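Figure 2 data, in text form.
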Amino acid sequence: MTWTPGALVRHQPLARQHRPGAAADAYRIHYRGNDHEGGQRLASGAAFIPAGTAPDGGWPVIGFAHGTTGLSDASAPSRAGFSQIELAHIDRWLAAGYAVAATDYEGRSTPGPHPYFNGEAVADDVIDAVRAVQGLDHRIATAWLVAGFSQGGHAAMHVANIATGYAPELDFRGTIAVAPAACAGELIAALTADGDAPLSPIVPLTLAGIAATHPGFEPDAFLTPLGAELVAWATRATLRDMHQAVRGIGNDQAGTTGIAARPEIAEVLDAAGAPVTYLDRPVFISASRDDEIIPHQPVERFADGLRRAGADVAFAAHIGADHAGMLETGQPDAIDFGREHLEAVGVAYDVPAQRFDLLDRSGDGLLARDDYDAFALRLARSLGHAPRSAKAAAVRDGYRRLWNAVCTAADGDDDGTVSAAEYRAWAAREAAADGDRSGFATAVRPLAEAVIALVDDDADRALDRGELDRLLTACRVAPETAAATCAQLDANGDGRVSADEIVDAVRGFCIGEAAPGSWLFGRF
């Protein structure tokens, strides 16, 4: 039997005490999903249906990504219930005319560890929950938005990065992130900067989450015995348990002071952060200057970075609301944002035609690493490959190699970005070296081979027309231009596209030739 992520497996009425007042029907759901390494697993969650008559086309959906509740099965909201403030938040979405699909995230109330703060791992859980409510006996629309709070805001930004490609049958309209923990590194740095400060329960939960998805990570090596005990306890505790466990303990006592600067942690936290790149649907972010958990300034910088990267971002700054209070304070503007984008007539997606402009979606004249990482993840997820599967990892490594090669050759001022002038100078040098393409081929070949492997069903290390069509569809090449692109890529006319032909096409695109290499960039 084909394992279809998002397929509803079973549902039963949700316990009455866990229902928001505006829900006419409420269910605990189990649905099919994949873990972050590509294995098959069930995920659980809750589905809420508003009272009244569904509009033409059915109820639009909010895919709700909840805040931190802990890592244990007992902390799954569909099992233990949402906090009162999150239940009230869901209630307001129902009253505004939305059905709500609320995942528990993988590894919560279903087998396996919960990958806390791994947004790539849980983004598909959120989307698959929205798919699952389509299987209920209610009129449900395909139009949907993701709304996330705190940890869920971090998850929502990862949803924004993959939603349109991962679930093209749904009509994704935008992202709402309330007090998002989007900048994991800066959050942990702020929470652990002062050795005398109280230990936040978020810190042992984060270290336990890292250990769940990075088997070689050993926090016991730098924590005190007390700190190591708290991390071990976090794997089976609720957030309430952790608040009690850390009471009266400071960062110095746990050995967590300054841990965000440790290379092994900084690297993981950097990878966990939501990518700052172009997003193809609008985003609404709200944060409070008086939030005691999520520092306001990193969130504002994150929103500004997205805006510079070309994303359509609205940012609302609040004063006076604490972290929990943002669930109410930030919601009226979020509801207005949702209504505006549900009423929009379709979503335009403009793709620049040429070279640097195609890569530079922000139009700010700079290329950055996050753009290449985002291309890799979106392509792999569009073709159904989990973030840490072998094929997805090879594609990400291939894009990163290409970025490193371009940055090393073109970044004359060593600022970690490539300007339009630097890019043009590099392209001219590359074009002039026409007799020796070995350097460029060395950089691009791993990417070409990894991309072929995503769809190479017969394992012949080349793409036949059917395989290439699947790849071009995932890269959002319009059907009316796909045939011409196939013909251009198949330079020798043998009916197959090899890694050598992809390398030549990508090189030609990068240096400005009339080559068909643009399909691999910027359309995601």
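Caption note: Residues 346-355 have pLDDT under 50 and may be disordered.
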